[in-house]
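Query structure, 359 tokens:
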């Protein structure tokens, strides 16, 4: 069973190459999720059974300074969801005879009788308040250590996309496997058709706030702009004049095509999006979600490496930003993706009858 977190669509999209390889290798795969993640996975894999698993349903604040307090207020609900999904998994293992779980950042999906893997690029948690760093890190490792292995979608050495997020000073107790960058895309040569492709994603209300700012700031641009709203299942589209074209959601195949037709891509600095941008070797302008420390760190890191241009949301001023990005001198890295699907031998080893699972 493969089950991604519902914190934006990135957790689901980066599971796609793993699910594809499992299906191709002949495994019977169950998916689990709810809401937009379930719609996305069902569209990508209509032949697979999808089990309803309740969302964490996290929401963001309108202002960056409020986000830590907003998330803290939701912590009891998140912990309750983790307890509920642990109980849910015990029922599903019996019902479906599940013999392995791959959880993307869902901390309750571990079981004492079967190998359970957690997929995460975030071994280090960056908090807005230094005084909380040690406590949060200890809690994080306590939850990670329930699993049999941790799979990190990054390189063990250079070029590391996630930096200190995936390379902590002290490792968890359980084995950590670096499986390389994950992307559902394979680059090909397609002529440029759009000046800008905008990819929106992430929890509300920040998704909508960025959408409205993009519409306002890029309204004077004369070249073609495609805005993909990140709303699978949504039917209605904004009624706004050119240069904008809107799509609520695209399949992986369609999205790869339009991303490769883009001269520039504007998007959040979510890690899954970053891996896809690097896989396609696309020039990007990253706008981290205000107050989200992980995205702020990733945007600054990629800007320092000159892998992408980044700017704060409140400083985004349309065509001026594109002009500044064009003069930034981007230098994209050699892609660090594994063609061999390293997770398949890791899985086979864990599924061996000789393996004794720690309790």
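Result returned for the query:
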């Amino acid at each position: 069973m493969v089950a991604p977190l519902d914190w934006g669509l990135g957790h689901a999209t980066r599971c796609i190459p793993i699910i594809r390889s499992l299906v191709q290798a002949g495994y019977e795969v169950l998916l689990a999720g709810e809401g937009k993640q379930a719609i996305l996975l069902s569209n990508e894999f209509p032949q697979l059974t999808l089990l309803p698993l309740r969302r964490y349903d996290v929401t963001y604040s309108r202002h960056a300074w409020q986000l830590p307090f907003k998330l803290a207020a939701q912590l009891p609900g998140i912990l309750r969801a983790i307890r509920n999904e642990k109980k849910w998994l015990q029922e599903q293992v019996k019902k479906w005879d599940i013999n392995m779980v791959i959880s993307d950042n869902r901390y309750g999906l571990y079981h004492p009788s079967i190998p359970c893997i957690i997929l995460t690029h975030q071994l280090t948690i960056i908090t807005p308040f230094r005084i909380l760093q040690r406590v949060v890190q200890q809690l994080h490792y306590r939850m990670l250590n329930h699993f049999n292995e941790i799979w990190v979608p990054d390189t063990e050495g250079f070029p590391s996309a996630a930096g200190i997020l995936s390379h902590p000073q002290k490792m968890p107790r359980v084995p950590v496997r670096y499986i390389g960058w994950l992307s559902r895309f394979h680059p090909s040569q397609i002529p440029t058709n759009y000046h800008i492709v905008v990819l929106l994603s992430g929890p509300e209300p920040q998704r909508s706030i960025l959408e409205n700012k993009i519409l306002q700031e890029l309204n004077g641009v004369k070249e073609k702009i495609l805005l993909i709203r990140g709303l699978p299942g949504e039917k209605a589209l904004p009624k706004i004049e050119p240069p904008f074209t809107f799509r609520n959601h695209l399949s992986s195949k369609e999205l790869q095509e339009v991303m490769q037709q883009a001269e520039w891509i504007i998007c959040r600095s979510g890690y899954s999006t970053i891996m896809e941008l690097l896989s396609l070797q696309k020039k990007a302008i990253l706008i981290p979600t205000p107050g989200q420390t992980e995205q702020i760190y990733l945007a600054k890191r990629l800007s320092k490496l000159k892998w992408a241009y980044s700017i704060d949301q409140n400083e985004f001023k349309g065509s001026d930003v594109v002009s500044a990005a064009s003069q930034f001198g981007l230098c994209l890295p050699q892609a660090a993706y594994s063609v061999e699907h390293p997770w398949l031998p890791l899985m086979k080893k864990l599924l061996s009858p000789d393996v004794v699972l720690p309790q």
